[in-house]
């Protein structure tokens, strides 16, 4: 067995797992890991952001657009604490992110002396925002924890995992065996239950499919499409699951049409989804409606809505099985294309009526290619795009999921662009959220990450200000923002900055950005925007309540 330092063992294990990119920010406890990365610099690209939270978000953007684990490396204590909002976001979005962090020296862990970056029970703390976390205590243990981390990332429901390695372990040499990566473990699902599901679906007169982020993480979009087409079943995609079926597909629907579609369904298949609606309320079925649920995480099957046929399985394998089996039971159905198209038209009318968001959204739609990756944010245009932007490809539209993490969008987009150098990546921001990570403009320039950043500047935490005005007799507090000129700021950082007025200005700015190379920031001054969502949601919630049992 070769003798390696813990740092070398880490890098060799990562290489063996196929890691080619790491988002990392160094510090003394990680010196021996970073020196090993120096030796491997031809095989592993190290992208260093300006704050650990960005390292975590970038790893998430990398992971969610490729389906491959995104890896980040940060110092212990304050460094890894800085990255916890990113871990929480990746957790919410079932994203395969590996957080590698340091520790204080092995002999001091748990003593409470007060040494650099010491926090009590770092592993325990991180267990709340990860699926699995472990420490390597010798160089020989390093590949063991790395390989187990990757097994966790590639098995069942992917969620972030964490490993920590004390500095003395990174520095010391020992005998190290680098193992072979284990193949992904995918749950096949109980054949009897799959047969029951196929029978129910095949015999259904009006089947409906609810598709969540699990379909994207497991890469099951072709199987989903085949099954939906075989059944003529509309597919309602969750916010985190958009792109599984192209929005232009006859059967593709988003959650806004659920209140219309759900009451008409006799058999519902929910796959890789939490089964909550646009208002995060559990999706309830009426008496007589049959529910089949497929999820790689068996605990999920007992959450929100119980199924008649619960199937613990990977979406790709289970949907593939259903495609094979359903033909034996299926029958011809009256095509519902006219009805489904009418629903989409009504929804489009509603969304297009929400100005000025709709016109800005239209500018994005017309300028971006179908394979562009769009990263949304907690901002007025982001809320609109979550429903109104037509997502045509899987793994191409990212949000911060139920975490609603303001500021996540820009660094997630940076990671997505690093992972997809040949695709256009556009990050949509408000002035408030953007400045959570404004320092990463330097990262875009230094690492030549050619994304397009749009910043809608209303001089406010606009959402907060509007709620304050409407609910508290016009009182506003802590919601006004005094900003720099974002276009000029971008130029100072060394990238192209454009100031765009109105939707047509945005369209022209996007054209200029996408025709060129290198990173571009487009600043769009805007006024307050009306909240279109609440009105639509309330109306839909009423409809849903009327349809449920
Ligand atoms: C980490 C985090 N902090 C605070 C919030 C609360 N919050 C939600 S939206 C918002 C304002 C966003 O302002 P901006 O990015 O400028 O978007 P705008 O609403 O003005 O379009 C705030 C503070 C949050 N969602 N996440
Ligand atoms: Mg704002």
Q: Based on DSSP secondary structure assignment, what is the total number of beta strands?
A: 20
Q: How would you state the average pLDDT, rounded?
A: 95
Profile the largest sheet: 6 strands, parallel
Shape: globular
Number of helices: 23
Unreliable segments of 5+ consecutive residues: none
Tell me the strand order in the biggest sheet. Answer: 3-2-4-5-7-6
* Ions, cofactors and other bound molecules: thiamine diphosphate, magnesium ion
Bin the strand percentage.
Answer: 15-25%
Secondary-structure-derived class: alpha/beta
The span between the termini is 65 Å
CA-based gyration radius:
24 Å
Q: Roughly what percent helix? A: 40-55%
Secondary structure layout plus pairing:
Elements: E1 3-5, H1 6-16, E2 21-25, H2 31-39, E3 45-47, H3 52-66, E4 70-74, H4 78-82, H5 84-92, E5 97-101, H6 122-127, E6 132-135, H7 141-154, E7 161-164, H8 167-171, E8 173-175, H9 191-203, E9 207-211, H10 213-217, H11 221-231, E10 235-237, E11 252-254, H12 258-261, E12 267-271, E13 290-295, E14 309-312, H13 315-326, H14 337-352, H15 357-367, E15 373-375, H16 380-388, E16 397-398, H17 409-419, E17 425-430, H18 431-434, H19 441-446, E18 452-457, H20 462-471, H21 486-493, E19 496-499, H22 502-515, E20 520-525, H23 532-547
Parallel strand pairs: 2-3, 2-4, 4-5, 5-7, 6-7, 9-10, 9-12, 10-11, 12-13, 13-14, 15-16, 15-17, 17-18, 18-20, 19-20
Antiparallel strand pairs: 1-8
Helix pairs in contact: 1-2, 1-7, 3-5, 3-17, 9-13, 11-13, 15-16, 15-22
